[in-house]
Amino acid sequence: MNSHKPGWSSRWHETSFRVRYQETDQMGVVYHANYLTWFESGRTEMFRGLGFAYRTLESLGLLLPVTSADLQFKSPARYDDLIAVYARLTTFSALRVVYEYEIRRVAEEHGEGGASGASGTRKARPAASEPLPGELLVSGSTSHVWLNKEWKPVRIDRAQPELFRAITTALKEEEGGAV
């Protein structure tokens, strides 16, 4: 089965929450390293939105560590801001995965379900090309490689062909629904 070519993008998947006090520094803004944690939350929830959990990958003997991370800071998030983390796949192959992210400050009305401060609100955006709501704070990407439990590179299509087909099918179904 063919993997998605570089440059292809899935739909944006959203998770939203409020900035917690402990995530801010002495200047009252979110400490820069916390954005990487938010990226992780975004990709975990995005993957869950496709019907898969990272825990399942690990139980199958697969690991997906970060091999590189890139962040561009535009504006700081502050305590109690309502934040949306948008994540999407730009590359999915038998060897590697690349995610793209946007972290945005969103209006209270946008939060519907997350506006109360509840964490973990997940939504899927209709299309990769649709403009995202809110003020862009941070954008970036992470690259990952498929490994086995011995930390050796593996081809997921050979190590877990059923999982590879299931993920590819979920991505194709999502792509078919994109505008």
In brief:
With 179 residues, this protein is of the alpha+beta class. The protein is 24% helix and 30% strand.
What does this protein structure show overall?
This protein is an alpha+beta fold. 24% of the residues lie in helices and 30% in strands. The protein contains 4 helices and 8 strands. It has a 6-stranded antiparallel sheet with strand order 3-7-5-4-1-6, covered by helices on one side. A hairpin with a 3-residue loop joins strand 4 and strand 5. The protein is globular. The N terminus is likely disordered.
Tally of contiguous helical segments = 4
Helix content: 10-25%
Name the strands of the widest sheet in spatial order.
3-7-5-4-1-6
Distance between the ends: 24 Å
Following the backbone from N to C, one meets helices and strands in this order, namely EHHEEEEEEEHH
Proportion of residues in β-strands: 25-35%
Poorly predicted regions are 1-7, 112-119
Gross geometry:
globular
Strand-helix topology:
Blueprint: E1 13-18, H1 34-49, H2 54-59, E2 62-63, E3 66-73, E4 82-92, E5 96-105, E6 121-124, E7 135-145, E8 147-148, H3 156-159, H4 161-177
Antiparallel strand pairs: 1-4, 1-6, 2-8, 3-7, 4-5, 5-7
Please name the defining characteristics of this protein:
179 residues; alpha+beta; two-stranded antiparallel ribbon; 30% strand; disordered N terminus
